[in-house]
Amino acid sequence: MLDFTSALYLGFRHPSRSLRPWSQFTTGVPAALASPPEADQVAQQLAALQTCEAGVLGSSTFPLFWDLFGMLACRPVTIYVDAGLYPIARWGVERAAARGVPVHEFAHHDAEALRRRLRRDGRDRRRPLLVTDGFCPACGKPAPLSDYLDSVRTSGGMLIVDDTQALGIFGHSPSPDAPYGREGGGMLAQLQIGGPDVLLIGSLAKGFGVPVAVLGGSRTAVEEFAANSQTRVHCSPPAVAVIRAAEHALQVNHRSGDRLRLRLAGLVMRFRRKAAKAGFRFTGGLFPVQTLAPTSKADTLRRHESLLRRGVRTVLRQAADGGGPRISFVITARHTPEAIDRAATALTEI
Fold first, then answer.
1. Cβ neighbours of 324 (radius 10 Å)
2. How far apart are the first and last CA of the chain?
């Protein structure tokens, strides 16, 4: 069975023998009281990779968004949400909304719609907070982060980015021999934007294969977050083994990341080329999540079952725009050219 469902895009697996040993799995105390000594070091390395001044680790993106919006809800702010925002960041926004913060949604990746809304709300004394994903795998396009930042900056606001999908894949200085860019620092690194009015939250669970997340931004913002985080008071820090895996991921990324990203780009291009030859159209661009153009629900389910019978496992998911189910192939650097060709042949057969 060929598996095209794993989001470990670069193929990182971190077997125990590849990690530095540990004598204690967890500290047994809340993160606010004590964190493993490597936690700060890894957080700072991740922050630097993403062009942020400082960073702090969380066990996942959920507690980071939960705490962040809990803190922001205590201030006079208005939240503007890109309609394509991933659910976990939305859950944080919903916490702020439950506390009375006004929330407005605007059309996906529509920077002009955001500008119009901000102009309409111009007399509001609340600080605007814009929340968006850095990259949308559903449409295969990056958010217009530079335009977003210009708009909120003009209004004295803040840009908050969930960069989980881009972290480990996109980076600075894209070129023909580095189609995704270099070093894998994410969308802010690729666009070379940032500042004290930008906060970044991202999970390492996809590109780097580690179930841990980081919040990055200015040193002042990160220190304020760490000092006021509720989950850091009531929850344990990431386990020592997880932090060692993040440490290992950064080492492998520094040593081999650009080579793996180039291999991944080649596999994605091979897949798109062969699928197009077979008469299939996919969204996703060069991103490793390739989604088949929508058809009827019955036809989509039939295709998914037909692929399974031919030994190809794909992701069957509900469309983010509320449409019917869609089929996605998630390509990783561990796939071989032969596996890509087999998948394309299975598509041709159905």
1. 14
2. 17
Q: Which two tokens stand for residue 286?
A: 């060069």
Tell me, what amino acid is at 220?
T
Q: How far is residue 84's CA from residue 286's CA, in Å, rounded to a whole number?
A: 19
Show the domains of the chain with their CATH numbers: 2-7+256-349 (3.90.1150.10), 17-252 (3.40.640.10)
Q: Which helix (H) or strand (E) holds 2?
A: strand 2-3
Dump pLDDT digits (tens) for 151-186. 999 999 999 999 999 999 999 999 999 999 999 999
pTM above 0.85, yes or no: yes
Q: Could you tell me if 329 and 343 are in contact, meaning their C-beta atoms sit under 8 angstroms apart? A: yes
Q: How far apart are CA 320 and CA 3, in angstroms?
A: 23
**pLDDT tens-digit map of 192-244:** 999 999 999 999 999 999 999 999 999 999 999 999 999 999 999 999 999 99
CB-based contacts of 211, cutoff 8 Å, min separation 6:
59, 60, 203, 204, 205, 242
